[in-house]
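Supplementary Methods. Inverse-folding protocol.

Structures were first reduced to a discrete structure-token string of length 295. This string, shown here, constituted the complete conditioning input.
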């Protein structure tokens, strides 16, 4: 995960000004292995903080708003707190959150079920505190759903020869059904990237969540898409535990939308993998679509 990217001088100055006992010279790059991730762990006299550069002004605004929302809705041990922010640098400084990232963490089966149940409990509390979506929010959601349907149609043109009949039919359903189906779905203030890479687990402190740069109003069921494709398809007991914690089952419309949105993700992986000759994405796309059509 560590990339050892040098810290920009202006960010180093801001850390020194905002955190007199911080030591940016000993900062560790803990960015995810993708181009727009820039995160450092900075030691202080008594603990550590995290400093993040947002990839765009929109991401920065969403992250700051997400931290404010988390501070209202979640307990201190459930989410880090925003310590400082600079819109010019698009930088945020946050407190240390106890626990280890769940993705890749070796968990026993019962403990994994417990983590998924706790994840559902926290997300339901997050969703229930949502304010009503504005007209602009709803227009953005409608455009997103229409865009995902169009993307599925475009991906189908380039991947059709790599899909079986059931997979092609499923992707066609994404293109035809998704925009209209989305009109029936609950809208909430979403975390936006509620995947296991943003879950923290500690046997003593319990469950927590990080990373709010995708937080915004949206269709609630979109929170579950990555989990559906990557985790739940081969492990339905984890899905059951999650929704036990969430406190309600998905409606028929939500289940259908989850299927279609996950298929859109799968065919997007496949199309991108084929165009960029990336075998990892190709395998991932095939795996997601195979799981969906054989479930």
């Amino acid at each position: 995960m560590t990339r050892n990217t040098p810290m920009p001088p202006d960010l180093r100055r801001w850390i020194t000004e905002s955190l007199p006992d911080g030591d940016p010279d000993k900062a560790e790059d803990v960015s995810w292995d993708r181009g727009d991730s820039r995160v450092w762990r900075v030691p202080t006299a008594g603990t550590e903080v995290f400093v993040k550069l947002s990839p765009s002004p929109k991401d920065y605004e969403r992250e700051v708003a997400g931290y404010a929302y988390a501070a209202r809705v979640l307990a201190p041990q459930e989410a880090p707190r925003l310590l400082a922010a600079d819109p010019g640098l698009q930088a945020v400084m946050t407190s240390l959150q106890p626990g280890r990232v769940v993705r890749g963490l070796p968990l026993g089966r019962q403990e994994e079920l417990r983590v998924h149940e706790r994840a559902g409990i926290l997300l339901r509390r997050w969703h229930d505190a949502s304010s009503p979506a504005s007209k602009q929010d709803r227009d953005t959601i409608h455009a997103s759903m229409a865009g995902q349907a169009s993307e599925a149609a475009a991906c189908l043109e380039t991947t059709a020869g790599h899909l079986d009949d059931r997979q092609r039919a499923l992707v066609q359903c994404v293109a035809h059904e998704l925009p209209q189906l989305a009109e029936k779905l609950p809208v909430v203030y979403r975390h936006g990237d509620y995947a296991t890479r943003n879950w923290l687990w500690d046997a003593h402190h319990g469950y927590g969540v990080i990373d709010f740069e995708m937080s915004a109003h949206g269709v609630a069921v979109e929170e579950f898409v990555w989990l559906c494709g990557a985790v739940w398809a081969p492990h339905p007991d984890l899905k059951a535990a999650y929704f036990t914690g969430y406190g309600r089952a998905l409606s028929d419309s939500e289940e259908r939308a989850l299927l279609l949105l996950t298929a859109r993700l799968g065919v997007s992986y496949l199309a991108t993998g084929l165009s960029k000759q990336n075998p990892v994405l190709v395998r991932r796309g095939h795996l997601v679509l195979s799981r969906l059509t054989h479930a």
